[in-house]
Amino acid sequence: MSTPVIPAHLPRTLGALRSSGYEPRSIKEEIRDNLRARLSAGEPTFPGIVGFDDTVLPQLERALLAGHDVVLLGERGQGKTRLIRTLVTLLDEWMPIVEGSEVNDDPMAPVSAYGVRLVAELGDDTPVTWRHRSERYGEKLATPDTSVGDLIGDVDPVKVAEGRTLGDPETIHFGLVPRTNRGIFAINELPDLAERIQVALLNVLEERDIQVRGYTLRLPLDLLVMASANPEDYTNRGRIITPMKDRFGAEITTHYPYDVAHEVDLIAQEADLVAIVPRHLLEVMARFTRLVRESAAVDQRSGVSARFAIAGAEALAGAALRRAAITGDFPVARVGDLDGVVPTLRGKVEFEVSEEGREEEVLHHLARKAVAETYRRHLGGMDLGPLVAVLDEGATIETGDLVRGPDLLASGGQFEGLGRLVSALEGPEAEPTAGISAACVEMALEGLWLTRRIDKDEAGGRITYAASGE
Fold first, then answer.
1. Residues 7-54: pLDDT tens digits?
2. CA 20 to 30 Å from 422, out of 51, 135, 161, 408?
3. Alpha-carbon distance 84 to 274, whole Å?
């Protein structure tokens, strides 16, 4: 994403900045003021975050208003990184810095040797530039090979070769943390950071300064520090050292969406769908994901990420697009596409050792259960007698991976209540196109088969629904 162009009206020298009435604020004061304004206006505080409204978000709001650094603790795929990145929206759109400063020096109160020297030499003529809020976020995925130099800084041999002495503080090449000064710095998977590297961050969290090698350098930093961690990481891959945990002001536990509706909204928001996936199929994927999380066959310590459901919805769209490319059909996913999608999701789930060799069987069973739950939720109280009557009169309805939607509808003929069926599954606003109607009919047929009201036969990639007992 390209950075917006700096507006022409913003001051470009220290003197002009002073005359404009600019008053420096710390990063935490800035976030507090902007968050309070958003809460007072009744606006969403963290746009795009789904399912945390009554749990995680109020805790995070309280922590930010208190000026705390925060650890988000939760299993994989619960949106921790997404939530941290959303904090950028609470920053002012533009922030002034001393032009050329590597650590975003405030022109009114520079902290680096470069910034202090330039302001002392040029005074009100010190050149000022502006940082957009999108440039004020730094993120590091903690890995065992992360060094102190990566995060804090080290001696820059190029600057030494240019003639600077080792005692010159401008010889230092700053790391990610000081380069994010006056912004938000995030550490993902904090327990994976070697303990000796965590020690190097202790001063950043408490004293708000950094030390580089043997330099007598005190660089007061202005940061909001955020971190994420998985509960299992405390014992499995590493741990957060006790002094580090003590320095974070708040530890907030995240969770998977509690409601099916929130899970559906999350999939609809995050999935990049290349074809139409009807709402009832998104619900099937949401229920499928929840059933996998609850299954005794699955290692619950590792969790089942929201990416499981998102990838499943995207694969359904891919199946619909493939059918459309081969047959010329309009690309709309159907419940029958789920059989081909389930095996591709196997790698996103950690199973118990006792289930070795049965992984796909377990997933297919849970997928059928999700279809049955969705069917009962939307069609359990609906009279599907007219559809069953079509089969009782001797008709069979064929579907499958390469069966076009109009052909599926034609094989069953028109039956009374098709419009109500579409409305029940997709909502009263849904447009009953051939593709959507075919998807809804197939969902109804699959539900009728799962509740043993009709028969189903699969052969050669074709599925045939017929009257029970044939």
1. 999 999 999 999 999 999 999 999 999 999 999 999 999 998 999 999
2. 51
3. 28
